[in-house]
C-alpha cells in the first residue's frame, strides 16, 4: 500500500472529502486479514527493541467520531504488543483539578517515558474539537491552542518521542449502523451513550473542526487519515504505518556489559 496517500502533507489545508471512508487499498478482506499477522509479529519485535533500548518513545494519537473505532484499534492493533511496554491514556471531560491548569497540563503528564509506546485514546485535540463545536471557545482561541499543540509536539519530538497521529475516518451511514448495532445487542448497551446522537447532529461542524486540527501535520508528527468503514483495513493500515514508523526509529538492543561467551551456568 502507498502510505503517503493517507498522510496529511505539512502546512496544507485539508478536505476530508478527499479521502474515501470505505477505501480497501485494492485488497480483499481475505487478503488483508492474511497480511495482518506478519505485521503484528514485526510490530511486537520492534516494540521489544524499543523497550530494551530505553532511549526513545513512541506516542500514538487516536482521534475519531463516536463509534469511529478507537477502542477497536487499541484492541486489534495495540493488543499485539507486550502490555508491559504500553501505556494507554484516555482523555474525557476535564476534572476540576485539570480545569485549574492550562489545557495541556493533563496531556503532558501522560506522555510516554523512554522505551514505552504511549497511546492517547482521544488526546490534546479534544480541546479544539468538542469545545469548538459547542462554542465553549471561539475560533481565535482554537487557533492559539493549535499553535500551542504544535509547540508541545515539537518539544516531545525534540526530546526523543516520535509521534504518529491517526484520524479514523468513517461515514455517517457507517456510524449509524454501528450505533444501531450497540442498541440491538444488550451486551453492548454499556457502550451506547444517548449523548452521541446529539454529537452526531453536529456532523458538519465536527468535519470543519477536524479539518483545522489536521493542519498540524508535520514531518515528525504526521497525521494519517485512516479509512475506517472497513475494520480489517483500518487495522491493517494502522499496523503497517506503525511498523514503518518504528523501523525509521530503528531501536537497537543495548550492548551487554558482559561477554556472554565467558559465562557458564552450572
UniProtKB/TrEMBL annotation:
Single Gene Ontology MF annotation: polyphosphate kinase activity
Protein name from the UniProt record: PPK2 family polyphosphate:nucleotide phosphotransferase
Example GO BP: polyphosphate metabolic process
Pfam families linked: PPK2
Domain Polyphosphate kinase-2-related: 27-252
Keyword Signal applies: no
Native source organism of the sequence: Deinococcus metallilatus
Kinase listed as a keyword: yes
InterPro entries assigned to the protein according to its UniProt record, in alphabetical order: P-loop_NTPase (IPR027417), Polyphosphate_phosphotransfera (IPR016898), PPK2-rel_1 (IPR022300), PPK2-related (IPR022488)
Keywords attached to this entry: Kinase, Transferase
Amino acid at each position: 500500500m502507498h502510505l503517503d496517500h493517507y498522510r496529511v502533507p505539512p502546512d496544507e489545508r485539508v478536505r476530508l472529502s478527499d479521502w474515501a471512508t470505505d477505501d480497501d487499498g485494492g485488497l480483499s478482506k481475505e487478503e488483508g486479514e492474511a497480511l495482518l499477522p506478519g505485521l503484528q509479529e514485526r510490530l511486537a519485535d520492534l516494540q521489544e527493541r524499543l523497550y530494551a533500548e530505553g532511549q526513545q518513545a513512541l506516542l500514538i494519537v487516536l482521534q475519531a467520531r463516536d463509534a469511529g473505532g478507537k477502542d477497536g484499534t487499541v484492541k486489534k492493533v495495540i493488543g499485539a504488543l507486550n502490555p508491559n511496554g504500553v501505556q494507554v491514556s484516555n482523555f474525557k471531560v476535564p476534572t476540576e483539578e485539570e480545569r485549574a491548569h492550562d489545557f495541556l497540563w493533563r496531556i503532558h503528564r501522560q506522555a510516554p517515558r523512554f522505551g514505552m509506546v504511549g497511546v492517547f485514546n482521544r488526546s490534546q485535540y479534544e480541546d479544539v474539537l468538542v469545545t469548538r463545536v459547542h462554542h465553549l471557545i471561539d475560533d481565535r482561541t482554537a487557533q492559539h491552542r493549535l499553535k500551542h499543540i504544535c509547540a508541545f509536539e515539537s518539544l516531545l519530538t525534540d526530546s526523543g518521542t516520535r509521534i504518529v497521529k491517526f484520524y479514523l475516518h468513517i461515514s455517517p451511514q457507517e456510524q449509524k449502523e454501528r450505533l444501531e448495532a450497540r442498541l440491538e445487542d444488550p451486551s453492548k448497551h454499556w457502550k451506547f451513550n444517548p449523548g452521541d446522537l446529539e454529537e452526531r447532529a453536529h456532523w458538519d461542524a465536527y468535519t470543519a473542526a477536524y479539518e483545522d486540527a489536521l493542519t498540524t501535520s508535520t514531518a515528525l508528527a504526521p497525521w494519517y487519515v485512516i479509512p475506517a468503514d472497513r475494520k480489517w483495513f483500518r487495522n491493517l493500515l494502522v499496523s503497517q504505518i506503525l511498523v514503518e514508523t518504528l523501523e525509521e526509529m530503528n531501536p537497537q538492543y543495548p550492548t551487554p556489559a558482559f561477554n556472554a561467551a565467558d559465562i557458564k551456568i552450572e
